[in-house]
Specification:
about 575 residues, alpha+beta, BirA Bifunctional Protein, domain 2, YbaK protein, Rossmann fold, five-stranded mixed sheet, 31 strands, globular, binds adenosine-5'-triphosphate, binds magnesium ion
Length: about 575
Amino acid sequence: MRQSAYFLPTLKEQSAEAQIPSHQLMLRAGLVRQLASGVFSFLPMGYRVIKKVIEILREEMDAIGGLEFLLPALNPIEIWEQTGRVEAMGDVMFHLKNRDGLVLAPTHEEIITYHARQHVKSYRDMPMIWYQIQTKFRNEARPKSGVLRGRQFIMKDAYSMDSSWEGLDVAYDKHYQAYCNIFERCGIKFFVVGASSGAMGGRQSQEFMVESNSGEDTCAIAEGYSANIEVASSAILPVGRIDENLPIEEFATPNAKTIDDLVEQFGIPEHRCAKSVVYIVNDEPWLILMRGNDELNETKLQAIAGTNLLRPALSDELVEFTGADHGSIGPVNLKKKIKVVADNLLKGANSMVSGANKDGFHFKNIDLDRDCKIDEFYDLRTVIEGEPSVVNGEPLRVVKAIELGHIFKLGTKYSDALGATFLDSDGKENPIIMGSYGIGVERVMACFIEQNHDEKGIKWSKALAPYHIHLIGVNQHKSDEVNAACEEVYAKLSELKYEVLYDDRAETAGIKFNDADLLGLPVQVIIGGKNLKDGNVEIKFRASDEREIIPLANLYARLESFLK
Ligand code: ATP
Ligand code: MG
């Protein structure tokens, strides 16, 4: 491809609209343009990368027996209503104003299950893996990371259908391996974490992550352990009991609204303070008791409650249920009988301080076994950097990460809701056992750039590069010899079926070199008058920025050994 005839609007300056390196470089290298918040146009060079990612996804999905579909983005809302996901998705789902009854699909579990219900009727019809590479729509709040979080994006989404739980395990393991192959082929360094199955239930779920400061996920990792912070736990010791078990006692705390105030004003050790918060879970109030310095993990709470419809209670609700406002609530002396759940670290603790459900007062010497009724204990807290891992006590590292892919044992949630059943070998009717598996195509591209760039530009791997060779003529518009040599090399490389971008523009060498480094094709072949006089050309490998000057006659063998 001749660059003089290509549409490649590169930018010299940083763009004010981009905050992270991949977004910045995709704009500057002329790969994408933003059309609206979270909506991007892929330009020819960017679209070539998208197609390379898609081809790798397709090959690896076909290799595990996946069958490729193309499902519509326009979906009847009834199907989504039957699984309760119109409500669960809330504002994330796009609804159409001028066509009642249709929504834009944010994912496709419902539609797959709908077709499975029509045609997968017997255990003999399974196992099945159905997949597609298709556009999804999600009305993300304030997308700000370029194509990493779009309102319209391409997803490879796959769904497995099995007649047994063992079958689901097999399908899940196949996807796990396929995902490893995909990211390895792309040249992306990744790690896998245990993830939350969220309010959707389901059995097992893992995410494929890229460590990056541009990430919106947080993970806790240590030797032999890795988990999304949404589910991560640690081996930190419980608060426990002290020998001196004094009677419970109320004391005035007029100026203490926070745990820090209690610690400062009364010298109470932080871990002996129990913090109480009230949540409204599916319209029902829950008092949640944690160590004073711990943060409640809402995703864990959602998983326990089996719903994502929960929120902190408002001031007037606090007074209605507990008798006090923020800063004075606790598990003892509640005005109304409400459900009380506590973090595991508080199991059996005594000598605790907590609000007295009377504004400006607290209790001390609370023995959680003796003085209050705790309905259930759960792991509710968010782990903290440095806490010992549950595997071997190694300190946890807490890192930012980007979610590249997600594999999920759904079980029968969708087949139950939509009545997708099959007859087993005994002629008994059972719900189809399903898994769901997704990878974001643009995210693969952006994550690769996050990991492979320098201040000059991108460093494409051979697998994802839009073209493999950047042929650069140095001042060829001023030299017939250089021009002739460039044309000859271009003709030969094209004949050899290499993917070549040929910078034949009448531009200065400086402009061409800067654009070439920005674009980041794996190898640059630089033909200039000085080297040519000695019968040589220069090649530069963008990944290492190493240069070689070699005889023109050896060029094809050298390229073949590098690219093949
Ligand atoms: P996130 O937590 O980042 O919003 P998610 O958990 O909602 O993602 P899934 O429903 O698991 O995403 O979708 C599968 C894959 O699709 C993700 O792993 C990610 O690679 C990609 N993806 C999800 N949302 C977006 C988006 N808004 N823009 C681009 N890719 C996305
Ligand atoms: Mg996910």
